[in-house]
Design a protein that fits this description.
Length: 417
């Protein structure tokens, strides 16, 4: 439910908080981990097992979504001949209020949509609905090197009260050019079931993805990565709890039953002699719902003392709206949605992370981000509905369901043995 009720980041983002339970382990991004501090140093890689415990707190402004997410990751290295195994367990507690898609008015009203969603509109504010949900997610990944190849297999499962997801993935990292280049590629599939609490239906949703990328060591201090991915969603893609204002009434959210998504990512990392590294990435996204998005991210890692790393970050994001998105339709349309995640909006995020080796093999991680997000579909609240003899009257300050601020805090411990 957290995915569909909209944790702040757009649905088009690479690995958003809404998707954390379904794609926790991103094998395709493994080569990029090398861009961290130490990747350009002369220290040889060593086989090592680890246990990661982390806790995430996510909060949206104005009493919107709140997420509490404890997570456990076990990484066991059995040696070169037996490979590596990763087990990921997480539990998300999601609560708060989420926009229903309803149009704001200058009166306080309570309405129930055709899908059974009851929402409250409070004097010019975006209509919200309260909810809470729990989600459990598990992921198991096995990888083993065969010569210049590092193939991996990934199994994942997650459940919540109205959604079940089962995923399977295969990937490989093929090192070549005397170790200077790595070709990474993979495919994944997910067979999900959507079971809205407003009815007794069980609706299928399928996702198929393919990814291809190339990592190149440009020199002793530089690393470059370029990759692309193609994803196809089919089946039930509607949001069963959202409504769409149409004239003086509402209809339920309805979208195409297919969605094809394409992303292109370029990443660069440069190591500085004062023990710092600047990592820059740009991502271009587009889909056949007419959404186009750009993401530009900067992260700087700096060693400030033995065992201490400070990492400030900055991210810019912008997207266009879906072709069938509208905050208010004049009449019924074949496809329609007032979901702010499909609207045009932009955001700026700043972050700071600190890691410290508190004793040999034990590292503490602390981090936080703050994001400012603003919609580009600003609308004026309705003061008086249209009648047979007079048009609708709008007044008051403009607003958008995409307008919000978000805060994230994380704390974690890594034990390597």
């Amino acid at each position: 439910m957290a995915e569909r009720r909209g944790v702040a980041v757009a649905a088009t983002e690479p690995v958003s908080l809404r998707e954390c339970g379904r794609r926790r382990v991103s094998l395709g991004g493994a080569p990029w981990i090398l861009a961290g501090l130490g990747a350009f140093g002369a220290r040889p890689a060593q086989a090592q097992s680890s246990v990661d415990l982390s806790y995430l707190y996510y909060k949206e402004s104005d009493g919107r979504i709140q997420v509490l997410d404890p997570m456990l990751l076990l990484h066991q290295d059995f040696g070169k001949s037996l490979g590596q195994l990763d087990l990921l367990l997480s539990h998300d507690a999601v609560s708060g209020a989420s926009p229903t898609g309803g149009y704001p008015t200058l009166s306080t009203t309570t309405t129930t949509s055709a899908s059974g969603v009851t929402s409250t509109n409070a004097n010019g504010q975006i209509p919200m609905v309260q909810f809470n949900d729990q989600r459990q997610a598990e992921s198991l990944t096995y990888s083993r090197a065969f010569g210049a190849h590092l193939p991996s297999i990934d199994l994942s499962h997650s459940t919540e009260k109205d959604y079940m997801a089962n995923g399977f993935g295969l990937s490989d990292a093929w090192t070549m050019a005397e170790g200077r280049g790595t070709l990474h590629y993979g495919a994944s599939l997910s067979n999900d079931r959507v079971e809205p609490v407003t009815n007794h239906l069980s609706l299928p949703k399928k996702t198929r993805s393919f990814a291809l990328g190339w990592t190149w060591i440009l020199g002793e201090d530089d690393l470059f990565d370029v990759s692309t991915s193609w994803t196809r969603d089919t089946g039930y893609l509607d949001e069963p709890y959202l409504i769409v204002p149409v004239g003086t009434g509402t209809l339920s959210d309805h979208r195409p039953d297919t969605r094809t998504r394409l992303a292109f990512v370029v990443k660069d990392a440069h190591y500085f002699p004062w023990d710092g590294a600047l990592k820059t990435s740009y991502r271009y996204y587009r889909d056949d719902w007419s959404i186009k998005a750009h993401t530009l991210t900067f992260t700087y890692d700096q060693h400030v003392d033995d065992g201490w790393i400070v990492s400030p970050s900055l991210r810019f994001y912008t997207q266009t709206g879906a072709s069938f998105y509208s905050a208010l339709l004049a009449g019924p349309q074949p496809y329609r949605s007032a979901d702010y995640r499909l609207s045009p909006f932009g955001s700026t995020q700043v972050g700071l992370a600190v890691s410290c080796e508190i004793q040999d093999g034990l590292t503490l991680h602390l981090g936080g981000t703050y994001q400012l997000q603003q919609g580009r579909d600003q609308i004026t609240p309705l003061e008086k509905a249209a009648t047979a003899t007079s048009p609708a009257i709008y007044s008051g300050a403009t607003t958008s369901a995409a307008d919000m601020n978000t805060t994230t805090f994380t704390v974690g411990l890594t034990w390597r043995y």
